[in-house]
Amino acid sequence: MKGLAHFFDKYRVLLLGFLKPLGFWGVGAVALLDSSSIPVPMDLIVAGYAWSDAHRFYLYVLMAAVGSAIGGLVPYWIGRVGGEIFLMKRIDRARFEKMRDQFERQAFLALMIPSMMPPPTPWKLFVFASGVFEMRVITFMLAVAVGRMLRFTVVSLLAIQYGPQIVHEMTELMHVHLIATLVVLGLLLIVLAVVAVRKALGRRGAKELG
């Protein structure tokens, strides 16, 4: 595995250099690779394109979101085929059951929110789990696409306003404050899950009264 990771690191620059002239199609291809197999700094890539071509930033955002949704199907299907045992080896029983409950209550938000969050959010873990818990494919792709579009839109607007360097600085800050980032993510998931449950109970109560 270390040898394979070294190979990807060695040729990542050549890969990005090859795809860069393809414009927003290249962004989509890089996003597909990032979600499926080869990690790349997508925020910096989208920020660079948006800064250099501000009038069409929405195209880069759209293609990056679509590429992420398509590429994410690889870890999704791996999880769906037989990833429960693998997932149980990576997280404890309590966290596994918590993730399962989140996907059962509100699958869309359980994946959309991690898709919005920047690194070092363990996004592929949520994607893998969505396959393990048999999330519908169309819901999966919509959740990833919407989350990524929101994230890359913010990244693009920041880059256009302040330059791509601001995105790099924010990424470094997120890495330094990893625990705080994950705590915020967890709190958002809990709040949205509570809201979703209350809405469901409210609709059920309204139907019973009617």
Your description of this structure?
The chain has 210 residues and is an all-alpha fold. It has one domain. The protein is 85% helix and 0% strand. The protein is built from eleven helices and no strands. It has helices at residues 2-19, 24-36, 42-52, 57-71, 73-82, 84-90, 93-116, 123-132, 137-162, 165-176, 178-209. Helix 5 (73-82) crosses helix 8. The longest helix is centred in the C-terminal third of the chain and has 32 residues, at 178-209.
Summarize the structure.
Helix 2 packs antiparallel against helix 3 (42-52), helix 3 packs across helix 9 and helix 4 runs antiparallel to helix 9. The chain has 210 residues and is mainly α.
Structure keywords:
210 residues; disordered N terminus
Number of strands: 0
Mean residue pLDDT: 78
Gross geometry: globular
| Fraction of residues in β-strands | under 5%
- The H/E string reads HHHHHHHHHHH
Largest sheet data = none
- Decide which structural class fits the backbone: mainly alpha
The number of domains: 1
Number of H- or I-type helical stretches = 11
End-to-end separation: 60 Å
Helix content: over 70%
Computed CA radius of gyration, to the nearest angstrom: 18 Å
Low-confidence segments:
1-5
